[in-house]
Amino acid sequence: MKITFDYHIHSTYSKNKHGKSTIEEIIQRAIEIGLKEIAITDHGPRHFLYGMRADKIEEAKNEIIRLRQVYPQIKILFGVESNIISFDGDTDISAELFETFDIILCGYHLGAMYSSFKDFWGFIILNYFGKFNKRLRDHMTKKNTDAVVKALNKYKIKILTHPGDKMPVDIKRIAEAAEKNKTILEISNHHDHLNAEEIKIASNYDVSFVISSDAHSKENIGGFEKALNEAKKAGLDLNRIINLTKGE
Ligand SMILES: [Zn+2]
Ligand SMILES: [Zn+2]
Q1: What pLDDT, on the 0 to 100 scale, is given for residue 48?
Q2: Quick one: which of 126, 214, 206 has its CA closest to 163?
Q3: What b/e string do you get for 163-179 counting C-beta neighbours within 10 Å, with b at 16 or more?
Q4: Structural domains for the chain
Q5: 43 φ, ψ to 5°?
Q6: How far is the centre of ligand 1, averaged over its atoms, from the C-alpha of 106 (Å)?
Q7: What does the CA dihedral 11, 14, 19, 21 come to, rounded to 10 degrees?
Q8: If phi over 0 gives left and psi between -120 and 50 gives alpha, with beta otherwise, what is residue 186?
Q9: pLDDT tens column, 152-193
Q10: CA distances from 98 to 44, 105, 142, 156 (A)
Q11: Which residues pair with 105 in a beta bridge?
């Protein structure tokens, strides 16, 4: 088994050396391992530590346009991993920025600059204390899930990245919203979500899955073993993983 494309890769356009490889190094590696298609997806600009600088987005896009000429044997998408920044489901990609990208991913991250202090308080502080208090955790699980569902309803998100990572969510309701919006659910090779149990729950809905390496350096591009293992453990019909193929 192998994957044919990898739609979740971070490059040096992330701040603070979050992505270690340049876009060109990523492309060369992807060609070397036989991928047909990749998406460069650095964090949206409101990720405090690792986001793309807003004034570099155009430059990154132009770099990809240039490299498409140099490496015509592979399809290269310019994407973004947008951040959920409020309980109303807002993300850091404005309507106008949306048009800039070929593909939009979205995920929840700890280092985002949230919309308001109230959002920060809920996402960071209350979720933290929820670890020690079941009532609070249940309450926050509902609120967190509402935020993700609202984001899926509000934006055209192609892939929801690592649902369940960094904050508890109700996978059932997320899968339901993904089905409604035709959002693909990611099985991350980098993070621990979706895990087997969550894949099993989500598979009860009419949703597709994608395996992503979420590579932060070129060596990890195309990685899929850990994710595939979770999918197998969940008993998922592997045909539902859109980028998995039989063969060497
Ligand atoms: Zn992420
Ligand atoms: Zn990522």
Answers
A1: 80
A2: 214
A3: bbbbbbbbbeebbbbbb
A4: 2-245 (3.20.20.140)
A5: -65, 150
A6: 8
A7: 40
A8: beta
A9: 999 999 999 999 999 999 999 999 999 999 999 999 999 999
A10: 11, 11, 28, 9
A11: 81, 159
* Residues 212, 178, 169, 19, CA torsion sign: positive
Written as one letter, the residue type at 104 is: I
Q: What does the block give as tokens for 246?
A: 């039989």
Q: Which ligand is nearest to the CA of 41?
A: 2
The ligand with the least distance to the CA atom of 220 is 2
Quote the crossing angle between the two packed helices 171-181 and 134-154, to the nearest 10°: 10
Instruction: Using the mean position of ligand 2's atoms as its centre, give its distance from the Cα of residue 216 in Å.
Output: 8
Q: What are the CA-CA distances from residue 236 to residues 6, 130, 177, 242 (Å)?
A: 20, 31, 19, 12
Nearest to 177 by CA among 153, 143, 204, 141: 153
Query: Do 12 and 50 contact (CB within 8 A), yes or no?
Result: no
Hey, what are 181's tokens?
């919006």
pTM: predicted TM-score of the whole model, two decimal places: 0.96
Question: For residue 166, how far is its CA from the centre of ligand 1 (angstroms)?
Answer: 10
- What are the helix and strand counts (H, E) for the chain? 9, 9
Angle between the N-to-C axes of helices 57-70 and 23-32, in degrees from 0 to 180, rounded to the nearest 10: 40
